[in-house]
Amino acid sequence: MAYSGEPILAADLLFRPEHSLIDQSLHSRLGEETTNGDGFGVGWYGEGTEPAVYKSIEPAWNDENLREIARQVRTPMLLAHVRTSTGTPVQRSNCHPFRHGRWLWMHNGVLHGFHEMRRELLLAVDPALFLDMEGSTDSEMLFYLALTFGLVDDPFAAVARAVGLVEEVGRTHGVENPVQMTVATTDGESLWVFRYSSERHSRSLFFSTEIATLRALHPEVEALQELGGDTRFVVSEPLRDLEGAWNEVPESSAGRVGPGGDEIRPFAPITPT
């Protein structure tokens, strides 16, 4: 789940919705796994130049410290993730979101054939970034490849080049469809999201309808009156069954939420030259 808008209590984002991310960690309806208990993480922006991150290898539904923190944290940008391991160890450094400088990154999906591709992908990471990698996941690898290809300057192009490299390396190892991903990344000002898979059958991803429209549709829903006009959610699964509230991000698409307005555009990998 990613939130962008006026500052709001993290508890209202993580625990209050009917089908909150914490509920999804136990009862996912659209995910590959029903239960996501291999750790979790929350990243948010507040004081200072870099975002804060809280991660644990405990299941999200069983962490009392998360509840305590969430009741006191108010933020305009929050990313939260519950994890099901796809083969790498259950350890804090492998929990999302990943952080580098002002940037946060989280990924839902898998790089098929990662074990075979890992060495070549590691060698493609900018040496200046290499020592900052902490974990062993395909998700963090994709983040550092995007950073290598210029995430800070042009997120759309950087992620396209990172995905193009993974597909190119995958082909050399006989991996037919190496990339399965939905991604959210932010610098604290704007939020970028991506939905793509090599087989054109990606995991689910939704964005919320404008709050003014939802208020007109559902004047009886008190929670909508409390949200700011610039509120945007991007989620793997809807947080509440509310007619007109959620829009599916199209297959092979990328989007941006932030200053200057929102946009959705087609997404295609850029093969390395």
UniProtKB/TrEMBL annotation:
Q: Where is this region: Disordered?
A: 250-273
Manganese among keywords: no
Which part of the chain is the Glutamine amidotransferase type-2 domain?
1-238
* Pfam families registered for this protein in UniProt: GATase_4
Q: Which InterPro entries match?
A: EgtC-like (IPR026869), Gamma-glu_amide_hydrolase (IPR052373), GATase_2_dom (IPR017932), Ntn_hydrolases_N (IPR029055)
Report the transmembrane regions from the record: none
Keyword flag Electron transport: no
Annotated keywords = Glutamine amidotransferase
Q: Which PANTHER family match?
A: GLUTAMINE AMIDOTRANSFERASE DUG3-RELATED
Instruction: Please identify the protein, giving its name as recorded.
Output: Class II glutamine amidotransferase
What is the protein's species of origin? Rhodococcus chondri
